[in-house]
Specification:
This protein is α/β, with parallel strands linked by helices. It is built from 19 helices and five strands. Helix content is 53%, strand content 6%. The chain has a five-stranded parallel sheet, sandwiched between helices. Helix 12 packs across helix 13 and helix 16 packs across helix 17. It is elongated, with a radius of gyration of 25 Å.
């Protein structure tokens, strides 16, 4: 993967390239970004940038690379210029793109196998390549579902840590560097302390890249030994551009999906799969049923919503959040709503007449919590019934009692 494959984050890409060109690269980096922010693709692009033969001083001049503060030979400084991206054509880039470079190792959560031997990442490499080929923006739930984990929890095991120590203690095969990309180090328990000495005093030209969604869940002993690299959420404009170029959506549809995705590219791609769904009439009817039509109309809509699959239910809830956020922007900031169609603009104005800011804020929190429960297989009919009752009190009586 190249930097050019990742839309946006241009300032961050420049920072990473500057770390290499200015010899300021730490031995252990923590790429921390929320789901769908592109932390894993960024780590993969960075690793490919480092091993690229046309962008690698040790490969070009057969000299130490100087990535970790060592001074390059003065003659090397004169003749070598770092590229703005990996070339994508050399043998190292081709192997990196196929997740087959011998000096780029991956570690990720795995589940126990039928045998009594503790599992390691190498046992799942075929699945891992397929997972990344499908989309490196997917989350750990997608990964565990793909390896049929069912109710099993994914972990990075003690045996995996021993494998890492063994791999990184060997000489590099081709590039001059050894790189470990550890995805979801939150899955690393106390056995991760086995890696402390290696992280603190690694062999020459060894780089750890940890890719996490929640740095607070990482072992403090490991966290304190890493240099933090924050991966921000995508800008709506970047997601919009990606959807137009990669999924061939119209500008209007891409803009609408980007606005709902809240900087999460994974959610944006899932929305593309349901791009034919028009949730606006459903939301309008649901709100009318809550505000004036009564229990019979509410029950009908709840029944219809509960028949949808989990992903469609999440898309519906996210769309309601989107409309509520647009109502708040309109009321508080008098924000422009050019990305909304006429019916949506009219609807957000009416929402402001129906509910005040505290009620809208409470409704958003309830919707976010509902998404959390949908992801964990809550009973859809009970969930939407509870949500409808709470919204009824918020809209009809401007009440926060049930929420608080």
């Amino acid at each position: 993967m190249q930097f050019s494959d990742i839309y946006g984050h241009d300032h961050l890409k420049d920072q990473l390239k500057a770390m290499v060109s200015q010899n300021r690269l730490s031995h252990a980096l923590l790429f921390s970004g929320k789901e769908g922010s592109g932390a894993l693709p960024m780590a993969m692009a960075f690793a490919q940038y480092i091993v690229c033969e046309k962008n690698n001083p040790s490969a070009k001049n057969n000299q130490p690379a100087g990535l970790f503060g060592e001074e390059l030979n003065p003659s090397d400084k004169e003749v070598f210029q770092f590229l703005s991206d990996s070339c994508g054509e050399c043998a190292a880039c081709v192997k990196s793109g196929k997740i087959a470079h011998p000096d780029i190792h991956f570690s990720f959560p795995v589940i126990p196998l039928k045998s009594s031997t503790p599992p390691v990442s190498a046992d799942f490499y075929t699945n891992w390549r397929e997972f990344l080929k499908e989309s490196p923006y997917n989350n750990v739930f997608d990964w565990l579902t793909g390896i049929e984990a069912e109710n099993k929890q994914g972990n990075i095991t003690s045996r995996e840590c021993e494998e890492i120590l063994q791999k990184l203690s060997l000489k590099s095969f081709e590039s001059g560097y050894k790189i470990l990309i550890m995805w979801m180090p939150e899955s690393l328990g106390k056995e991760g302390n086995k890696l402390l000495k290696m992280i603190e005093e690694p062999p020459p030209d060894t780089l750890f890249i940890l890719v996490a969604e929640d740095e607070a869940r990482i072992l403090p002993t490991i966290l304190s030994r890493t240099q933090l690299v924050k991966i921000p959420a995508f800008e709506n404009a970047d997601i919009e551009k990606a959807l137009i170029n990669q999924h061939h959506l119209t500008i209007e549809k891409a803009r609408s999906i980007a606005a709902i995705s809240d900087g999460n590219y994974r959610e944006a791609v899932l929305s593309v799969q349901h791009a034919e769904d028009d949730w606006f009439p459903v939301v309008r009817d649901w709100m009318n049923a809550i505000a004036r039509n009564g229990p019979m109309a509410q029950v009908k809509i709840i029944d219809d919503l509960s028949k949808h699959g989990r992903e469609k239910q999440k898309q519906f809830l996210k769309y309601v959040i989107h409309l509520l956020e647009e109502s708040i922007r309109l009321a508080v900031f008098n924000g422009k709503q050019e990305h909304l169609h006429d019916q949506e603009r009219d609807f957000t104005g009416k929402l402001n007449k129906l509910t005040a800011f505290p009620q809208q804020e409470a409704m958003i929190k309830e919707l976010e919590q509902a998404i959390y429960y949908v992801e964990r297989n809550a009973n859809a009919k009970l969930l939407f019934m509870a949500l409808t009752i709470k919204f009824s009190h918020l809209i009809k009586y401007n009440s926060l009692i049930l929420i608080n």
